[in-house]
Amino acid sequence: MVNQTCSTNLVLWQKRKESHFLGCGWCRKAPIVRWGATADNRDRSTAMKRIEERLPLKEDRVVLGEDQAPLKELDEWDDFVAIRYRQGKSEEEFRNYKADANPTVTEFYRQNHKYQTLDFVLKKKAEYCGLKRGQKSIWGMAEYLNTLVDDSDPDTDVTQIEHLLQTAEAIRKDGHPRWFILAGFLHDLGKVLCLYGEPQWAVVGDTFPAGCAYSDQVVFPEFFAANPDSGKPAYQTPYGMYEPHCGLDNVHLSFGHDEYIFRVTQKYLPEEAQYMLRYHSFYAAHRHGAYRHLMNQHDEAMFEWVRKFNPYDLYSKGRERPNTKEILPYYQELVSEFFPDKIDW
Q1: Which residue from 29, 51, 114, 302 has the fewest beta carbons nearer than 10 Å?
Q2: Is the pLDDT of residue 8 over 50?
Q3: Does the residue 5 lie in any domain?
């Protein structure tokens, strides 16, 4: 079962009355495409059972004594970021981002900034970055991500996979390299952390370095006062535990879907794509120039690609619904070009 800490309004896809996997593939209302029988999806129930067996036991999950699912759905955070960085918005308007934040988004950031300590980040990197949850295909995990359904809005019939395809298609239409297009398709697959049982604040959110002083360019910086690391002087200098220009690969960012999907895919993608996946939520750095004292020259060069990717991440979701049946063969070929049938997760 999906851990309810992620969202009280998320339910398994197979529970929806209008969803029929065998007949509709990824659709929720009208049939779009039927999956072919492959070694990885021939027995979906067995695959799902194996995934669910690896979910943390209830007694092993962090109990924090408050609602760990303030967002009605994870997309609330994405939507807030898109509004915050709306094209043409002045710097003065940006500084007034709190006016764009509803109470649930504000509460989400309060929890994120409070609980993302260095110890927590190191613990989660040890838990997930070793990729010990078994081998699965990209398509199998995309299917699994599709079990994230917003039950609070039954009129919304754009699935999680269709959101990924919207981003990838926007990149494709602008003529970017194939690996760039693939990065667009993959960039949010790390949100399966939510289905592993992680709370929302450990899955999405603007990322920031732990173990050094917090930048005021991170949204809602006042909420860092509740973070236990704020009381540790060694972590509250500009460099903290790091060396000047040590490089971001040596810096521990707050944990979430960016780091996880980077770890899963890093052996298979060009470095430019790796930077896109790992740092696309690091807005304080790639949008505002914060933390450059920790970046080296290679980071600076690679961040040009992160900035190229950012508009597609922010502004592609409002575009037309993709014709999945028409474009699916292209993406099947694209994934096969870069990835073997199964990879470690």
Answers
A1: 29
A2: no
A3: no
> Using CA atoms, how far apart are residues 70 and 217, in angstroms rounded to an integer?
23
Q: Is residue 2 in some structural domain?
A: no
275 φ, ψ to 5°? -65, -40
d(CA 121, CA 215): 18
The strand pairing partners of 147, in sequence order, are none
pLDDT of residue 160: 80
Q: Phi then psi for 233, rounded to 5 degrees? A: -55, -35
Query: Does residue 159 or residue 61 have the better pLDDT?
Result: 159
* pLDDT over threshold 80, residue 231: yes
Cα separation, 167 vs 174, in Å, equals 11
Asked whether the beta carbons of 128 and 263 are under 8 A apart, the reply is: yes
**Block residue for tokens 């918005």:** 89
3-class DSSP state of 225: helix
Amino acid at 137: S
Rg over CA atoms, the chain: 20
Distances (CA, A) of 15 to 38, 96, 233: 24, 41, 50
The CA distance from 114 to 225, in Å, is: 8
Alpha carbon separation from 240 to 126, 213, 231, 245 (Å, rounded): 21, 7, 13, 12
What whole-number distance in Å separates Cα of residue 56 and Cα of residue 91? 43
- Tell me which of 1-10, 127-136, 312-321 is least confident: 1-10
State how many domains the chain has.
Answer: 1
Residue 164 lies in a domain: yes
Kindly tell me if the per-residue pLDDT of 188 is higher than 60. yes
Give me the sign of the Cα torsion angle 168, 173, 174, 178. Answer: positive
d(CA 324, CA 29): 13
Lowest-pLDDT choice from 86-90, 218-222, 261-265, 310-314: 86-90
21 part of a folded domain? yes
Domain containing 74 equals 10-344
C-alpha pair distances (Å), 284 with each of 55, 135, 218: 32, 34, 5
Q: What angle separates helix 271-279 from helix 178-186, to the nearest 10 degrees?
A: 30
Is the CB of residue 236 less than 8 Å from the CB of residue 189? Answer: no
